[in-house]
Amino acid sequence: MGADNTSAERRRTLVTGVIGSDTHIVGNRILGMALEKAGYTVVALGALTPSDEFIKAAVETAADAIMVSSLYGQGELDCRDFRNLCIEAGLEDILLYVGGNLVVGKQPWAEVEQRYRDMGFDRAFPPGTRTDAVIAALEDDFRAPAAGGHKAGR
Amino acid sequence: MSAAALLIDLGSTYTKVRAVDLENPRILGAGQGPSTVTTDVTVGLAKALADLERGMGGRREFTYRLASSSAAGGLRMVTVGLVRELTAAAARQAALGAGARLVGTFAYKLTAADVARIADLAPDIVLLAGGTDGGNEDVIVHNAARLAACSVTCPVVVAGNRQAADEAASRLDAGGSPVTVTENVMPEFGVLDIEPTRAAIRQIFIDRIVHAKGIDRAAEMLDRVLMPTPAAVLDGARLLADGCGGRPGLGSLLVVDVGGATTDVHSVAKGGPTRTEVVYRGLPEPYLKRTVEGDLGMRHNARSIVQAAGREALADDAGLAPERIEALARLASEDVGRLPRSAEERAFDKALARAAVGLAVKRHAGTLETVHTATGPVTVQYGKDLSAVETILGTGGALVHGAQPAAILETALADDADPLSLRPRTPRMLLDRDYILFACGLLGEVEPDAALTLGLAHMHPVAYGTENGCNPAA
Ligand code: B12
Asked: What are the boundaries of each domain within chain B?
């Protein structure tokens, strides 16, 4: 294989999108731009993305992580089988983040976070998360897998 | 005598030739000869040329003698990609665009059974894709190794992840397959780049397949076999639609080709959403798109047309009793050279062609879907929006020789009863009565300007509204 094109030099690839019937695209765009600026290759699926499309895109692009946005309150329904779908597609170890307004109304964050962890997400982010916090978390996780991530959870 | 070109379609049932005046581009003469069932293409060609000479009152010199071929089974291809809806779909599009007959399409990692199946299919060319550039590397390399380890030794085009292409190629090479590496059919997620693959397939066709199929036995009688016939038709369609050298063509175009075994649809159109509130989803489709409906053919697949359209619906359309439909379909599929002999058979043929065109165009065209969100419905488009297409062109025996081509072509149009199917609304309708579209594609390779004039001069307008006239939505 060509010495200068090996995967060691490869930029990390992240798949982003807004899941389900959710049209809130603004935060997802802002996040995508910030991630690109931080040196990631972003595969942006945009709003109204069915969960299987995230996974298909991740398979084809050999993505390192999937970043799911959900704002409209139905995230729990939309994300329920996400990790299982990943496992089905051979992506058992892919890093999964979710963020936005993940539940209806105001609920204690620790509980919300735990629910998404139980679904197999490595990290969940509360409303108002700033992009630099996301980038810092990615750096950590790419250095070492997220502590207490989905594997420990199951 | 002014310069002339000879354009040849080495077909599976007929070999057709057209002599064309190059200075004042028009048809000088036409000829046809039955292709023999055996592999010798020279027999059919000799008959077609004799027929041409009879019509033109003698032999003449030609500046060009160019041919396309669908003889000896056409260009039989197998495509392999990674995700079915992504690189595997892109590979299918590329092969179809190159004029291939897809005999097998595969996705994900090939299994031992898949590879055995491919060996059985004995394709002329395998197209191997998979992974965006920088994306998945394992699957294409795995698939290359699988292919290398089996008895498949046909040429392989590698058009996948750039980072893995060399590795895949060297595996295949070790297995004895001649390999061509070209650009990735999907270099980035959602971006199609199929032209380099089309070109690579065409080159292999010229360099190897023409010989492998014995088509080069006709070498004395022609200068070059340039491409598979469906590719010539697609190139002809593109030239007619786009024009050349600043000369405008017809604009966006849909070509429907109803044959004995399949119905082909070609569109030359961008096909993006025509309404601003519509969101596009899924893989973008190529400007030049070809689909082949393997179950919609007037003879070999008459029975599957009946199955797809429904016996009662077809009977209704033909004005025949439902019980007669099966018998007529059997007759058609058992005697594939049959021309209709009675009013009943003619009515049946017309209804078959209407069903084939309607279904084939519906499958080719994009669709709208309504997604219900909290704020109300959002409209999502999959595939090409062809509602604004300016011209529909019909070609193929069933349309050209059948009665009432308008009544057949009209089934391609948008239907108010089926508003989610994005078919043309108010196109003009043309008929390739002289079977010249493939010739435009061939001639376009050497004299595009003459080819354009030829095509524009020989497409015959068809008026809307005959007895079956479902007038298009205004
Ligand atoms: C603008 C807006 C809309 C616009 C959206 C326009 C568009 N196409 O984008 C419109 C008017 C269409 C709209 C519609 C609706 N909206 Co609205 N909308 C908002 C509003 C006011 C702002 C959203 C926004 O753009 N924020 C700015 C961006 C930058 O922030 P962000 O999206 O949170 O993203 C940041 C972070 O969260 C993070 N992030 C985002 N995604 C991810 C993913 C990962 C993995 C990570 C790590 C981080 C991350 O990064 C971003 C950058 O900092 C919010 C309220 C609010 N202030 O948040 C309500 C809000 C999201 N909407 C809400 C609702 C209910 C709706 C509707 C259902 C209303 C209705 N009943 O009709 C519909 C749903 C439409 C649909 N099908 O999706 C609720 C959701 C409530 C819930 N979750 O329980 C909110 C919270 C308002 C509220 N307080 O009630 N909305």
From this structure: 4-71+217-222, 76-208, 239-298+353-462
Residue B461: in which H helix or E strand, if any? strand B460-462
Q: Give the number of the atom of ligand 1 that is nearest the alpha carbon of residue A25.
A: 9
Residue B406 CB partners (closer than 8 Å, separation 6+):
B429, B462, B463, B464, B465, B466, B469
Main-chain dihedrals φ then ψ at residue B87, nearest 5 degrees: -65, -30
Minimal Cα–Cα distance from B171 to chain A, Å? Answer: 11
Chain A CA closest to residue B160:
A60
Report residue A4's pLDDT band, with 50, 70 and 90 as the boundaries: very low
CATH 3.40.50.2300 correct for B76-208:
yes
Element (H, E) at B126: strand B125-128
Of these residues, A4, A22, A93, A122, which one is catalytic? A22
pLDDT at site B473: 38
Confidence at B402, pLDDT banded by 50, 70, 90 = confident
Taking 80 as the threshold, does the pLDDT of residue A152 lie above it? no
- What residues in B contact A62, CB-CB < 8 Å? 131, 134-137
For ligand 1, atom 42, name the residue with the nearest CA.
A99
Residue B185 dihedral angles phi and psi, to the nearest 5°: -65, -25
CATH of A4-141, one of 3.40.50.300, 3.40.50.280, 1.10.510.10, 3.30.70.20: 3.40.50.280
Contact in structure between B142 and B161 (CB atoms under 8 Å): no
Mutational pocket test of ligand 1: of A71, A94, A102, A141, the residue with most ligand atoms within 8 Å of the beta carbon: A71
For the domain covering B4-71+217-222, report its CATH number.
3.30.420.40
User: Tens of pLDDT along A105-122?
Assistant: 889 999 999 999 999 999
Please tell me the residue having the least CA distance from ligand 1 atom 28. A27
The domain segmentation of chain A, as residue ranges, is 4-141
A14, A53, A60, A93, best to mutate vs chain B, most B CBs in 10 Å: A60
Q: Residue A5: what pLDDT?
A: 36
A77 in reach of chain B (CB within 8 A): no
